[in-house]
């Protein structure tokens, strides 16, 4: 749980908001308005500079203000949050008949990382839990290394089921024996018996943790926070039961039944894999959303596999057919989407589902705990990226306070009924494709949040840290992640404006706080990137500068430093994060421009997976060169402003040059920068030669004529004539009569 904030911290947070607003207003009054009223006659250039500078300062101050507002909402939630007692949870799930399906989309992930994720899901306490690994790799790779990794990933589900089979059967047998012999009144012997089962469960988890190979901080987190944390919780129950036995007492029969059920639920889970790319009848779009949508569309149905020339397709099973269906997909009330590089702590499922089933939350479609970063990252860039992730956790918690929750995507518990409300259906190539989670942008969770709001659903963040996710270990993989995050907000913005207009005509009007936070969430990367670009590269008139701009930004940095310290980081990380954002400026701009491109072309952008591999990911040459240019131009600005006495601009340029230089050295590396730049130039200059087609077995050959492919009769009969009349004008048309001439 989050520590309860003090009254002093809450009051200081409110003062920070007031200081930011007052400083911005005074800047406009004492600097901008004064220059136009009392200053020398202004020319066109100064007027344009003043307007653009005010816009930049206003947008940046607005984003800082939204940080403080969201943070204040988070502090209020942490202060008011009271955890539901364990006994209340057990009573709520007594005679429970609903189930949950955990969907883990995976693409080219390391099997060890996926294993941690699947185990953290399989050990969740829930009456009926299905874990499904959605593998999106090419099902028939030609590379031996890739095939070996894929087979290891495919084997994970069976490994988990086989490992859990023995303890699950043991605890289920104990529970059934208790139900068969259940007395009207309990004795200390009954408490001692169930205590023995809890001891065995804790020892089983501790043994598994001891056998784990601790190769990195992610493996250590799995062993200590997932396995040992659950074992410690079971040992706490063991302590209570032993204390009752020593006092000659025992919990009542109903409570002992709940204790038995808990062990059965923890160690019972089904797990299997599904690969949509094996079936031509499912969407082949290269993104995570359609990987999830493909499986969700099959839930509750039974199918047979039909082999065609176009590939295997899934055909609905005819109920009149006495033969059983080849594939059956169970339907469940709830879905849990979980990224393949994330891990869940104990009680995640049971507490979030309990939240959804409270009467006041009947319109909540999605609940989640915004993920935090794994502790103990070995690299500077991973640690700072993790620090920004922890800050985002706080901001998302605060956005819920104002009703402005966005679906983060790494983990969430979802009502399937809500997804059915926003579903869209289209026919592609003769196959019906259902879309529940929109794949129009690569931030599919954000767009789906707006869709759910338009249909009357809401979203809620559970105010605890129960989920953790990996952060990019190097600059190359960070580029992939942050460029993806920067792409899509501009495209989703019209949908949000449409929702705002629609809700004006209802009793559920969008409040100002929610409206401002949502707009900032979608647009801040765009305007902050362009604003910082102008501040770095345009020589604004020194008359526009004022200490009030610094005072307006100061509460933001002080609050961020306080939040970093509360999350286990250093207060001084505010400077490292600033340098971090400087080197990411071209990455964010690239994502924004990609949004413009997508808006103009209406093309979908393939989902770019964030690499989480042991080897370093090479960075594109452009993104390595741009931070160096930022440093060079900052030094040039420093020299120019120092020579003409513009000391405010000179100080800002020096600050940027120092922090950007440190960021390049710490996060990218001088050697890595040179290697990636040279590699990027080489890849641009040289292109691999395409292999020449070679004759295959069964090809029809004519003496003196190159081999041509054999007629694929199955493909022709299945697809039909796809060439229309285009090839009728070609002498090489394969449908012409083949003749053999001899001299």
UniProtKB/TrEMBL annotation:
UniProt entry keywords in alphabetical sequence: Glycosyltransferase, Membrane, Transferase, Transmembrane, Transmembrane helix
Subcellular location: Membrane
Name of the protein in its database record: Cellulose synthase/poly-beta-1,6-N-acetylglucosamine synthase-like glycosyltransferase
Limits of the Glycosyltransferase 2-like domain: 335-559
GO molecular function: hexosyltransferase activity
Location (main, coarse): membrane
Residues spanning the signal sequence: none
Annotated transmembrane regions: 12-30, 50-70, 519-538, 574-593, 621-639, 651-668
Source organism: Lysinibacter cavernae
One GO term describing the cellular component: plasma membrane
Pfam families associated with the record: Glyco_trans_2_3
Highest taxon listed in the record's lineage: Bacteria
Membrane topology term: Multi-pass membrane protein
């Amino acid at each position: 749980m989050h520590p309860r904030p003090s009254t002093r911290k809450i009051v200081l947070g409110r003062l920070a908001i007031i200081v930011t607003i007052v400083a911005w207003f005074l800047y406009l009054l004492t600097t901008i308005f004064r220059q136009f009223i009392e200053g020398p006659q202004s020319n066109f250039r100064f007027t344009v500079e003043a307007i653009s500078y005010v816009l930049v300062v206003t947008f940046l101050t607005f984003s800082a203000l939204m940080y403080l507002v969201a943070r204040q909402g988070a502090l209020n939630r942490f202060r008011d949050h009271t955890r539901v007692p364990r006994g209340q949870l057990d009573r709520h799930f007594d005679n429970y008949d609903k189930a949950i399906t955990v969907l883990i989309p995976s693409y080219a992930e390391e099997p060890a990382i996926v294993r941690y994720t699947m185990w953290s899901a399989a050990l969740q306490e829930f009456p009926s839990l299905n874990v499904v690994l959605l593998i999106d790799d090419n099902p028939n790779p030609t590379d031996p290394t890739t095939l070996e990794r894929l087979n290891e990933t495919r084997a994970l589900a069976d490994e988990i089921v086989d490992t859990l089979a023995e303890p699950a059967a043991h605890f289920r047998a104990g529970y059934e024996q208790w139900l068969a012999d259940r007395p009207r009144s309990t004795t200390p012997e009954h408490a001692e018996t169930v205590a023995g089962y809890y001891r065995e469960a804790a020892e089983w988890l501790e043994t598994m943790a001891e056998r784990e190979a601790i190769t990195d901080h992610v493996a250590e987190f799995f062993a200590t926070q997932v396995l040992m944390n659950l074992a410690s919780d079971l040992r706490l129950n063991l302590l209570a039961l032993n204390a009752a036995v020593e006092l000659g007492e025992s919990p009542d029969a109903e409570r002992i039944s709940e204790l038995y059920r808990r062990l059965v639920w923890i160690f019972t889970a089904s797990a299997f894999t599904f690969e949509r790319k094996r079936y031509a009848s499912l969407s082949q779009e290269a993104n995570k959303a359609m990987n999830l949508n493909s499986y969700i569309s099959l839930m509750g149905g039974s199918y047979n596999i039909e082999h065609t020339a176009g590939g295997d397709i899934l055909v609905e099973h005819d109920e009149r057919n006495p033969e059983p269906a080849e594939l059956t997909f169970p339907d469940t009330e709830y879905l849990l989407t979980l990224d393949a590089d994330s891990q869940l702590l104990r009680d995640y499922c049971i507490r979030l589902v309990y939240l959804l089933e409270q009467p006041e939350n009947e319109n909540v479609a999605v609940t989640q705990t915004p993920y935090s970063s794994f502790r103990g990252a070995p690299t500077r860039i991973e640690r700072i990226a993790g620090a920004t992730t922890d800050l985002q956790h706080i901001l998302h918690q605060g956005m819920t306070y104002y009703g402005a929750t966005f679906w983060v995507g790494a983990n969430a518990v979802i009502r399937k009924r809500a997804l059915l409300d926003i579903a869209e259906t289209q026919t592609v190539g003769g196959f019906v494709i259902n879309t529940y989670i929109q794949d129009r942008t690569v931030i599919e969770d954000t767009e789906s949040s707006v869709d759910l709001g338009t249909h009357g659903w809401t979203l809620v963040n559970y105010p605890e840290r129960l989920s953790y996710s990996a952060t990019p270990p190097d600059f190359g993989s960070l580029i992939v992640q942050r460029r993806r995050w920067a792409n899509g907000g501009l495209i989703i913005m019209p949908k949000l404006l449409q929702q705002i207009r629609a809700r004006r005509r209802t009793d559920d009007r969008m409040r100002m706080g929610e409206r401002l936070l949502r707009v900032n969430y979608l647009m801040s990367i765009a305007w902050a990137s362009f604003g910082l670009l102008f501040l770095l590269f345009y020589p604004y008139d020194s008359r526009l500068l004022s200490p009030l701009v610094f005072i307006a930004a100061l509460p933001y940095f002080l609050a961020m430093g306080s939040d970093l310290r509360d999350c286990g980081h250093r207060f001084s990380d505010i400077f490292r994060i600033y340098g971090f954002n400087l080197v990411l400026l071209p990455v964010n701009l690239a994502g924004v421009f990609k949004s413009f491109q997508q808006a103009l072309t209406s093309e979908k952008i393939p989902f770019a997976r964030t690499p989480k591999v042991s080897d370093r990911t090479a960075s594109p040459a452009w993104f390595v060169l741009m931070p160096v240019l930022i440093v060079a131009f900052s030094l040039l600005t420093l020299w120019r402003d120092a020579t003409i006495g513009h000391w405010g601009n000179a100080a800002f340029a020096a600050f940027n040059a120092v922090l950007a230089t440190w960021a390049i050295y710490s996060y990218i590396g001088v050697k890595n920068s040179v290697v990636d730049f040279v590699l990027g130039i080489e890849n641009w200059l040289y292109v691999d030669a395409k292999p020449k087609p070679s004759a295959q077995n069964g090809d029809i050959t004519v003496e003196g004529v190159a081999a041509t492919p054999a007629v694929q009769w199955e493909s022709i009969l299945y697809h039909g004539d796809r060439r229309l009349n285009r090839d009728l004008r070609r002498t090489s048309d394969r449908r012409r009569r083949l003749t053999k001439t001899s001299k």
